[in-house]
Design goal:
By secondary structure, the chain is of the alpha/beta class. The chain is 47% helix and 15% strand. The model has no long low-confidence stretch (mean pLDDT 94).
């Protein structure tokens, strides 16, 4: 299998198509919605959850079999039916239009894989085996979920706010670099690993204020 290039896609308000309405499609739809995507679903039937989401107007739903015209205006496609011939057709037609397309349970027929992801707020840790062993990726993900708790997401939010302020208010490139480096040291990570979020945040804030007070 070819090597892959890891990216984090910004899908906010991007039109995405999910072909399929079963439990796998449901997971894909919900993950796309969590990223702010505009999701269209095409399927003869839907799970109860997807039906409720459609009734709320959170997704657009066309009941029926996949048609080539369903690709019009779409940015990213996920083929998630239980019929290989349909999934392969979706992939071939989407790639002919240079679209991003993932075929669930058969990723080599698409042009991107969906990695196993640990999400802690804005912190995302993705694990991929280039499609060779999704099971190994999932097991590593489970280990990472134990290692990195919700407190890491809270710290990322704080670091993001401070970074934004430093970039906006520090003109000198060297001082900016030094300030960004100083707010996160090994001690902060050690505190976080022990679950001492408040102490870690206090250390970050103190380092930030020391950097601002220096000429």
């Amino acid at each position: 299998m070819p090597k892959t290039y890891p990216v984090s896609l910004i899908l906010s308000r991007r039109p995405c198509l999910v072909v399929g309405g079963g439990s796998v499609a449901e997971r894909k739809v919900l993950s796309l919605l969590a990223c702010g995507a505009k999701v269209k679903v095409v399927s003869p039937t839907l799970t109860q959850t997807l039906r409720e989401v459609a009734e709320k107007g959170e997704i657009s739903y066309r009941q029926g079999e996949y048609e080539t015209a369903d690709l019009d205006g779409i940015f990213l496609v996920i083929a998630a039916t239980d019929r290989d011939e349909v999934n392969h057709r979706v992939a071939v037609e989407a790639m002919a239009r240079n679209m991003l397309v993932n075929v669930v349970d058969d990723p080599p027929h698409g042009n991107f894989y969906v990695p196993a992801v640990v999400r802690r707020g804005s912190l995302q840790i993705a694990v991929s085996t280039d499609g060779k062993s999704p099971l190994l990726a999932r097991k590593i993900k489970e280990e990472l979920e134990e290692r990195y708790g919700p407190e890491y997401g809270f710290l990322v939010d704080l670091l993001g706010e401070i970074r934004h302020d430093i970039l906006d208010n520090t003109a000198d490139p060297r001082k900016r670099r030094d300030s960004l480096t100083a707010i996160l040291d090994d001690q902060v990570l050690q505190l976080l690993a022990r679950g001492e979020l408040e102490q870690a945040k206090e250390r970050v804030i103190n380092a930030y204020h020391r950097g601002r007070s220096q000429p």
